[in-house]
Design a protein that fits this description.
With 1583 residues, the chain is α/β, with parallel strands linked by helices. It is 54% helix and 10% strand.
Length: 1583
């Protein structure tokens, strides 16, 4: 059935981000009523009695009917501007400029390095067999076109005496004096007979041939050492096959380089390289990626469906049988066969429809493609070469190759002598065949079928897919030895005299030997002088340059493929290199003399091309070159189309091996995978009857999981704007994908993902009051009401005057659930309101809620649909579940985070790149105002620039912050992760590790189970940071002990972690041990720094006095930690921090003074400059964060406070396990009532206002309200007096009786499972719907097992408190002692050195006054503690920044067709307005108005057009725009109709197949399950 879409006019609509058009309109009475929820609530509160309420509702309905009565209420209030609201146009342009520069640089580097390296190789080969004048052998003379220059060969000296000629007095004809020659009577001869060949050229070529294999061995050894769990097993079959292939290639390479190619000149040798791909050409004719015609595919799919139906005994099911589908009233026959306009609902709601619907439908929607799961392998690739259904192209390439090879043999026939003709042709054919064997893997496709050869094909498939690290090490060692051995044998066989002399000369053990080559005899020499002014060092320098260039070429070419610049920076430069190298040799061989450097010419300068000579022998070479190049281009057409995801692994892009030193360009072309996923190869047949295991494309499912408690309106709005921006972005992308799929059905945007938003709100309820008295039921608190108001307002701001549908409310076992429907199809915003009386509070338990709900419950719901999909795809349910969980992600968010849609896709890129990545975090930017925020901006920048980047590079990140991190579902569901994460803290260490830093503990559990945690610097997120000193210290008091506990947990269990996790090595463990020790010694180091600064600034102060002065404030803080309350400690810390900031200013002045006087002859000055230089370089390579550098001065002044006092405060208060932040800011009202109010009565007397006394005092204590008691029980404070704590414990003990404990579980289960469904709902639950039964049971059981609120007995509380205090005392004593010992040792050494001077290390420089510089113990301690760590982190930052730059380039698009073309409706409406004005300017008879008449005025909007922005009220009053918000479906329709399809899409779309892509995701399975359930209900119909 087809549905007709209702088109809405665009006259008064605007898209998000657009300024509403300034249009004239005559309609002014269309304004809607502006009733708010706050007004409704006020009316309900002020109205008494049911009759009055009904009257109010009737009045409200009447007022709603009269829209004109609300025309005056048109002013609007928009949410506050956020940091991410700016479009960032500057940085977008900056990034695009960087992309252009990078693309140009990549092209130049790849093309230049490829050309120069090939030229060097051919020149070095040409030096092995110089051309001879006495022979008719013309192959190395370009068929006779290369002519000798007689005037250069014999230098005339007839006018001189013979003795003078011997002394070098002869005419050089402009040739360098360094060229040695043979003196003959009256002439000095440069020509040699026989020509000499230095063995340095041979060894240089051997180095070029062998170096790539040394590189491969090093890479394989690194993986063997550090990637033990991912290695393939050593198999004898693989070893023997790999050894045979590699040795064959090595033999052919030696024959080619040392026998065949020296017989050619460099130009013809470069053409000869086109024909070393004979084996891939033959294989391309025999094996092809199967191109199945649509007709065969449909037939086979129908047979599969029928067989599935028969096996499951469902032939009578009207939804399964193919023939019945045609007669199904919900699936029209025309829809199945010849449907050209398949409707969205039809394609989505019939997941079991035949694939012919998808195949024959040129307007397939995303939903249609999504539900298609029966497509074969060819439908699952994005490569257009898979559309080649006919083998003409490979046969054409093979024919051109064969003809070109014939012409090459014809050139050899014309140019070679008869004696060597047969040998040259045989060696030529043998060598090109043996060399090309190495690239067989990319051109042999095997299919696991039921035939007898299935075992062999399975082995070949495993061989192709394996990395073969262990095999490669042994094979390549043998290959290197084999290359040297074969080369030695080649020259020994060619010996003209004694073979032993040749071997000795080859090994530099003899001076000379003569060998016979294919072109004639040459003389091998091992002397230091070569020819034409070159020495032995020159060939080795050329080989070194060639190695560097080939390595650059190899890396940059593969890098271009990873950053999605394959066409521009890989395919094009390599093909151009193949064409231009022969052209360059024409220039080089025509003008050889200019290529002389420092008297050395590496060419053959006595020969030049003579274009005047006959080219009869050359035309076959020209023809063979043209045909050979065309055959290579046709053979490698896949390099222009085979795409790949951004940041794809190199192993998935290139076959192994890809690094060949001699033919690197061809090696890269032929090893580039023809298909991205090589898991299934199909042998090409004409019948297409082989049964293969189908593949799927899994679309990511991202659950946005935010936790809230008592956020402000600004913080809530910031998070909601980020969510709705993602919603808009995904909606645009989906519609853009649908439109592009109309042109190319195989198009797929990898940045599209399914998503759903879940917000978990802690402490969301308060007791219900009736007339000021406690009543039955619960009310949501003011924070929930604020969130309920912010959601539609923020959506309206982002969507552009389009509003969300009314919220749906559900009563849940844990409290309540709000649900909104978003713009993107099937996307929802769900808010879970937690009642602390029903479920546990705090963030960790909210995470446990959504982990179990979204990963286990949702997957369990899909079991029926999974069974059906597994039957159709011949897969097992565990495999499908694993794939789904692997592509399901949880985006953990805080309630105040702000991010852009690109930040999520960048994190997903890391997840797609490596399935071992369990979590990925972005770059967190603190926002706010005040000095504390400024300090944190620099602190966050330094920690991300240096620490996180280094952890990512040398191992993996230890903590993925919960404010913005992406977690993989399969990693969360792994053993010892989710189950362990639900563990309740029972010991003191558990309270520190589990609850104080839950995000770090979750990452620790993942690391122990072998998952990686990565850091993406390109993914930015903003979050509010503490703005006050006290709040900041409380936050770090919670973070610091948790960080130390988790790091210590990993270090103590390092053997298990190292064994189980490939990313964690022994070096990584040592690094963190060193970092952990340096962190413990940081207070002592800062103490010494301040003491040294005091001595430097005030020379009159003795060292012992400086020590005492520095100990006083530290001692006061330590004493206050054990004797005073937390607020007193914070006050003292603030005062001492202020004093120390002044001292640090003195330190800064002292460092500047010492640097000026010593002129960098001081270790302290050098180290200070080194640290400053590291920070400056880090800021320069992070240009978007460069302004953070200006806050470095504040960071320097706060070093004593943050690196010494904060550590002491954190460790001294680690027994306080309160959350610390947001308590004062968010719960002031509750805190005021949480404390018991007390009144005192008695007789008073006073002296004015100065003094007041009270006698006979009597205290009156008011009872504590119930909500205050709840808050106090959930938020205990250690600042309360012991007597008050005892009273609270006694009261808590009385509230929970033994009878209530015994009946608690049964009562809760009965209430939550719906046994009391007939009860009357009170409070805010009055209008709530009930949850589905299965979800209700799930929450009930989850709460009962893991999340049931616990009542801790007073005795247990006392035990935990004592254990925490004991743990605090132990840790504080340990840290204090080691720092005290460190300070003491350094101080004593300083004193000994000051009296004796025996510990000073002199420096080779002088300071001010002529004194010699020296190194003191304090300088040594500070430098050793931090210098080495900073150096390691600096190099880690550089490496990580390169990878980040790669990620940014890969994610940036210059092509407008790759970006979403969002229409500018404002321009369209302005054009419509202009047309209307032109029509109005005409007279009734159709003629234009007279020219002398004035133009129609513009209604006073000229100022607005000039730059003054009109407010919403003015635009509404003028009638320019409606004030009434419109429904979200209208925005969907507008996006669907107005998404632009540009003609520029053709270039990009050509990279994709025209066969629909099969997509499987959690969302598609949910929709299929929902549709199946609706079909199973009697009486339901999709019509």
């Amino acid at each position: 059935m087809e549905e007709t879409e209702v088109k809405t006019p665009f006259e008064n609509h605007t898209l998000p981000g657009e300024v509403k058009p300034k249009m004239k309109t005559k309609r002014l009475n269309h304004f809607p009523p502006m009733t708010s929820k706050d007004e409704d609530e006020t009316e309900r509160k002020t109205t008494a009695g049911n009759g009055k309420k009904k009257g109010k509702k009737k009045d409200q309905k009447k007022s709603n009917q009269g829209d004109e009565n609300w025309d005056w209420d048109c002013a609007e209030e928009k949410p506050m501007h956020g940091a991410n609201d700016d479009e960032g146009t500057f940085w977008q342009i900056f990034t695009q400029i960087g992309l252009v520069v990078s693309a140009i640089a990549l092209f130049v580097i790849v093309f230049g390095s490829a050309c120069i390296s090939r030229i060097i190789i051919h020149v070095m080969i040409w030096k092995l067999n110089p051309p001879l004048t006495e022979t008719n052998f013309a192959m190395n003379k370009l068929g006779g076109v290369l002519k000798p220059k007689i005037e250069r060969m014999s230098l005339n000296c007839s006018d001189l005496l013979t003795s003078d000629c011997r002394q070098g007095y002869y005419i050089r004809n402009g040739l360098p004096d360094s060229w040695k020659c043979t003196v003959e009577p009256y002439k000095c001869v440069l020509r040699e007979d026989p020509p000499s060949v230095n063995v340095a050229w041979i060894w240089g070529l051997l180095i070029i041939m062998s170096a790539p294999y040394f590189y491969t061995i090093i890479v394989s050894m690194w993986r063997i050492c550090f990637k033990k769990n991912k290695l393939d097993k050593f198999q004898i079959k693989m070893f023997l096959l790999s050894l045979a292939v590699e040795l064959t290639h090595a033999t052919g390479l030696c024959i080619m380089v040392f026998l065949v190619m020296p017989a050619f000149d460099p130009l013809s040798a470069s053409i000869l390289s086109y024909f070393v791909c004979i084996f891939p050409t033959v294989l391309s004719l025999r094996f092809q990626v199967r191109q199945e015609d649509t007709k065969y595919r449909i037939q086979r799919q129908r047979e599969n469906i029928n067989s599935t139906v028969t096996n499951n005994q469902q032939t009578n099911n009207p939804r399964t049988d193919d023939s019945t589908v045609t007669n199904n009233p919900r699936t029209n026959n025309s829809t199945v066969t010849n449907n050209q306009q398949t409707n969205d609902s039809t394609s989505t709601n019939n997941p079991r429809a035949d694939n012919s619907t998808v195949t024959n439908n040129p307007h397939t929607d995303t939903s249609t493609v999504t539900n298609n799961q029966r497509t074969d392998n060819s439908t699952l690739t994005n490569n257009p070469h898979t559309n080649l259904r006919y083998p003409e192209t490979p046969f054409l390439g093979g024919l051109l190759f064969l003809i070109g090879l014939v012409f090459l043999c014809l050139y050899v026939y014309y140019s070679a002598e008869d004696d060597n003709l047969v040998a040259i042709l045989v060696l030529l054919l043998i060598s090109i065949c043996m060399v090309s064997v190495i690239w067989w893997e990319n051109f042999v496709t095997s299919n696991i079928s039921q035939s007898s050869e299935a075992g062999k094909q399975s082995f070949l498939k495993d061989y192709v897919k394996s990395k073969r690290e262990k095999v490669s090490v042994l094979v390549y060692l043998l290959k290197i030895a084999w290359i040297f051995l074969v080369t030695l044998i080649i020259y020994v066989i060619q010996s003209k005299g004694d073979t032993l002399d040749t071997a000795r000369t080859f090994l530099y053990l003899d001076e000379a030997a003569t060998v016979n080559t294919l072109s004639g005899a040459v003389r091998l020499e091992s002397s230091s002088y070569i020819t034409y002014g070159c020495m032995t060092l020159n060939p080795y320098m050329m080989s070194l340059i060639c190695l560097i260039l080939t390595l650059i070429f190899f890396k940059m070419a593969r890098y271009a493929c990873r950053v999605v610049l394959q066409r521009k920076c890989f395919s094009l430069p390599i093909i151009l290199n193949l064409f231009f190298v022969p052209v360059f040799f024409i220039i080089i061989m025509r003008y050889p003399l200019p290529f002389t450097a420092e008297g050395c010419n590496v060419l053959q300068p006595l020969w030049e091309l003579d274009f005047n000579s006959s080219i009869e022998r050359v035309w076959p070479l020209i023809a063979s070159g043209c045909l050979g190049l065309l055959s290579v281009i046709i053979l490698t057409t896949y390099i222009w189309s085979t795409g790949g995801s951004k940041m794809e692994k190199v192993e998935r892009l290139f076959m192994k091996p890809a690094y060949c030193g001699i033919f690197l360009d061809l090696s890269l072309l032929l090893s580039r995978r023809r298909t991205i996923d090589n898991s299934d190869f199909v042998k090409h047949t004409q019948t297409h009857q082989s049964e293969e295991k189908p593949q799927e494309v899994y679309s990511p499912m991202v659950y946005f999981c935010a936790t809230m408690w008592h956020e402000t309106e600004n913080e809530m709005t910031q998070l909601l704007k980020s969510i709705f921006r993602v919603d808009m972005d995904q909606c645009w992308r989906r519609q853009d994908q649908v439109n592009k799929q109309k042109q190319r059905k195989g198009y797929y945007d990898e940045d599209i993902y399914d998503f759903e938003v879940h917000i978990f709100f802690d402490d969301a309820f308060k007791p219900r009051k009736v007339n000021g008295k406690p009543g039955k039921g619960r009310h949501v608190n003011e924070y929930v009401k604020l969130l309920e108001k912010c959601v539609p307002n923020t959506a309206k701001l982002i969507y552009g005057n389009y509003e969300l549908d009314p919220v749906k409310k559900y009563e849940t076992p844990y409290g309540m659930k709000f649900e909104w429907t978003m713009l993107t199809d099937n996307a929802k915003l769900i808010v879970h309101l937690k009642d602390k009386q029903k479920i546990r509070n705090r963030k960790r338990w909210s995470q446990v809620m959504y982990m179990y709900y979204l990963l286990t419950f949702e997957l369990n719901k899909l079991k029926p649909q999974l069974d059906l999909q597994c039957q159709e795809l011949s897969k097992s349910v565990p495999e499908m579940v694993h794939n789904l969980s692997e592509n399901t992600f949880l985006l953990a968010l805080d309630g105040d985070v702000d991010f852009k849609p690109e930040a999520v896709t960048l994190l997903l890129d890391l997840m797609r790149k490596n399935t071992d990545v369990g979590a990925a975090c972005g770059r967190i930017h603190p926002i706010g105002s005040g000095p504390m925020v400024w300090y944190q901006k620099f602190e966050y920048a330094v920690s991300h620039w240096l620490q996180k980047a280094t952890e990512h590079v040398i191992g993996c990140v230890l903590c993925s912050p919960g404010c913005f991190s992406l977690f993989r579902g399969s990693a969360v569901l792994a053993d010892n992760v989710l189950k362990t994460y639900t563990r309740q803290a029972t010991e003191a260490e558990h309270h520190i590790q589990y609850d104080q830093g839950e995000d770090r503990w979750l990452c620790t559990l993942m690391l122990k189970e072998g998952f990686r945690v990565e850091y993406c610097a390109a993914s930015d997120a903003l979050t509010f940071a503490p703005e006050g000193f006290f709040e900041f210290y409380k936050q770090r008091r919670r973070w610091a002990p948790s960080t130390m506990a988790n790091i210590l947990d990993l270090l103590l269990d390092w053997k298990y972690v190292k064994k189980n996790n490939d990313s964690i090595s022994m070096l990584y463990i040592i690094y963190h041990i060193f970092l952990f020790v340096s962190s413990l010694l940081t207070p002592g180091t800062i103490f010494l720094l301040i003491m040294g600064a005091i001595i430097t600034a005030f020379p009159a102060i003795q060292p012992w006095l400086a020590l005492v002065l520095n100990m006083l404030p530290v001692g006061v803080l330590i004493v206050s930690i054990f004797l005073t309350k937390e607020d007193t400690q914070l006050m003292l810390a603030g005062i001492i921090s202020t004093i120390y900031s002044l001292v640090m200013m003195v330190v800064l002045i002292g460092l500047i003074k010492e640097g000026v006087e010593s002129q960098f002859c001081s270790v302290t000055t050098v180290f200070f400059c080194f640290v400053a230089g590291v920070f400056i370089v880090a800021a320069l390579i992070h240009p978007q964060e460069f302004t953070c550098l200006f806050h470095g001065v504040l960071y320097f002044l706060a070093v004593p406070s943050m690196s010494m006092l904060l550590i002491l405060y954190s460790i001294g208060n680690m027994h306080n396990i309160n959350w610390g932040t947001r308590e004062n800011k968010s719960a002031d009202s509750q805190e005021t009532v949480a404390k018991r109010k007390s009144k005192f009565e008695g007789h008073t007397c006073s002296i004015g206002e100065w003094c007041r006394c009270m006698l006979c005092v009597r205290e009156i204590v008011e009872p504590m309200p119930q909500d205050a008691m709840d808050y106090a029980s959930d938020n205990p404070s250690d600042d309360d007096k012991p007597q008050q704590e005892a009273n609270d414990k006694e009261a808590a003990q009385k509230t929970t009786t033994e009878t209530e404990q015994a009946d608690r579980d049964n009562t809760v289960v009965k209430k939550l499972t719906g046994d009391n469904k007939g009860k009357v709902k009170k409070g805010d639950f009055k209008n709530c719907m009930d949850l589905p039964e299965d979800e209700n049971v799930f929450w009930t059981r989850l709460i009962k097992k893991y999340l049931k609120p616990t009542v801790i007995k007073p005795a247990e509380q006392e035990r935990v408190k004592k254990e925490l205090e004991e743990l605090r005392n132990k840790v504080f004593f340990f840290v204090f002692i080691i720092n005290a010992l460190f300070v003491t040792i350094v101080y004593v050494l300083t004193q000994v050195n000051s009296y004796q001077g025996t510990l000073e290390i002199p420096l080779p420089c002088n300071v001010a006054g002529g004194k010699q510089g020296k190194i003191e113990p304090i300088s040594i301690a500070f430098t050793l503690t931090f210098g080495l760590l900073l150096l390691i982190q600096f190099f880690g930052m550089i490496y990580h920044r390169i990878s980040t730059f790669t990620h940014i380039i890969a994610s940036t698009r210059l092509d407008t067709q790759k970006q979403i073309r969002r229409p500018n409706l404002r321009r369209k409406e302005e054009e419509t307005t202009t047309t209307k004005r032109e029509e109005e300017s005409k007279t009734p008879d159709g003629n234009n108005l007279p020219e002398h008449l004035p133009p129609i005025p513009n209604k006073g909007w000229n100022k607005i057009k000039g730059g003054i922005k009109a407010s919403s009220a003015l635009r509404s009053i003028s009638g320019e725009s409606k004030n009434r918000p419109e429904k979200l479906n209208e925005l969907k329709n507008k996006i669907k109709e107005e998404t632009i399809i540009s003609d520029e899409n053709k270039d990009i779309l050509s990279q994709f197949s025209d066969t629909p892509v099969g997509i499987l995701s959690m969302r598609t399975l949910k929709n299929s399950l929902k549709n199946n359930v609706q079909e199973d209900i009697p009486g339901t119909s999709k019509d």
